[in-house]
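For reproducibility, we list the full input for the fructose -6-phosphate complex.
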Amino acid sequence: MLPPIDALLSRFDLDSATIAGRPRIERRLSDLRGCFRDAAAFEAALAEGNPLVYAVASIEPGPGEGDLHYGLGMLMPGRVGDEYWMTKGHLHSWRPAAEFYVGLRGAGHMLLEDEATGDTRLVPLEANGVVYVPGHTAHRTMNTGAEPLLYLGIYPARAGHDYSTIAKKNFAHCVLARPEGPALVARTAS
Ligand code: F6R
Ligand code: MN
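The corresponding predicted structure, in tokenized form, follows.
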């Protein structure tokens, strides 16, 4: 038997980055301690205030083995030192879980890092583009534009989030704002 239409359809508002009647988590600058390479620039920015950096409204239709979940993300533009505002980044607790990121509005990039090999890619995330995040891949999103970045992340219900691995060792690369655009730089070299 199929669920009622309300459980099959969601409508989102891209201006407020909300999905009617659904929970939304918010991450502020203080939630991103340890993510940026320039700790002094981070503390100086935080002393000025604790702005909203990103928000995610989630839809979790069911917990079944074959179910899918999705989240509407809004990542604001901003910088800490020469790094773009970013998400915390994570691996999926169930490592084989892949994910699609569908760009809806604004301009961003995704940093992808293979857990086993450290192989790294910097991939644009923008309207009319879909980024495929393979399983076993740490992923972080950066707003590399001047407007809010809006996107949908669609992932297996059983994916889960492992934030602790990133919190312990961070990504091996940083993405720096350079005059010619976003530049991928080894963290040790920066
Ligand atoms: C879900 C997913 C996204 C992120 C969102 C916020 O698996 O990848 O919905 O949760 O972009 O980023 P994090 O979760 O790293 O704070
Ligand atoms: Mn994910």
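Residues 39-48 form the longest helix (10 residues). The radius of gyration is 17 Å. Both points were considered when choosing residues for closer inspection.
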